[in-house]
Amino acid sequence: MNILIDNRQDKVDAINLEELVEKVIKTVLEVEEVIDNVEVSVSFVDNEEIRKLNKYYRGIDKPTDVLSFPLAEFEDTYGEVEEIEEDSEEVQPIGDIVISLEKALEQSMEYGHSFEREVAYLTAHSMLHLLGYDHETEEERKIMREKEEEVMARLNIGR
């Protein structure tokens, strides 16, 4: 498994986040029983950079906490990635995650939990998007929330 992490901001201290993000990604893959010959790219950015990305890709001109860019195609069921070949030894990219550490810090203070907990949650949330989950409907939202909570519980990260 390859996890590529790029800190492209200097407004929030990112020390110790790499190990946390790697643990979250590995846990999501375990929960979803996805093989480990995958590659995920994670970029830490500030609010200005994520605002620009959000405007370009989603037409929303404001900062958001996390953006997910899946590279794999999915079958009709969650987490079953068609393009990942289980027998292949070649590492296969499944997508990119972009997290605004500035927004994560703001939200951690707003919600009254640690910054690390917020980054872990955003990573789990985004990984589930990379694996085909969404929250457009109430049913999808419920399923995704249960998966997020399972990942956070396995990591022993509470609110």
Written description of the protein model:
It contains five helices and four strands. The chain starts with a strand and ends in a 5-residue tail after the last helix. The chain has one domain: Collagenase (Catalytic Domain) (3-Layer(aba) Sandwich). It is α/β, with parallel strands linked by helices. A four-stranded mixed β-sheet has the order 1-2-4-3. Helices cover 45% and strands 18% of the residues.
Key traits:
159 residues; alpha/beta; Collagenase (Catalytic Domain); 5 helices; 4 strands; 18% strand; hydrolase
Which overall shape is indicated by the principal axes computed on the Cα atoms? globular
Q: From N to C, what is the helix and strand string?
A: EHEHEEHHH
Q: In CATH's first tier, which class applies?
A: Alpha Beta
Radius of gyration: 15 Å
State the helix count.
Answer: 5
Counting structural domains, the number is 1
Q: Per CATH, which architecture?
A: 3-Layer(aba) Sandwich
Task: Give start-end ranges of low-pLDDT stretches.
Answer: none
CATH fold title? Collagenase (Catalytic Domain)
Q: Number of DSSP strands?
A: 4
Going by CATH, what is the homologous superfamily? Metalloproteases ("zincins"), catalytic domain
Strands side by side in the biggest sheet: 1-2-4-3
Strand coverage percent: 15-25%
Percent of residues in helices: 40-55%
Secondary-structure-derived class = alpha/beta
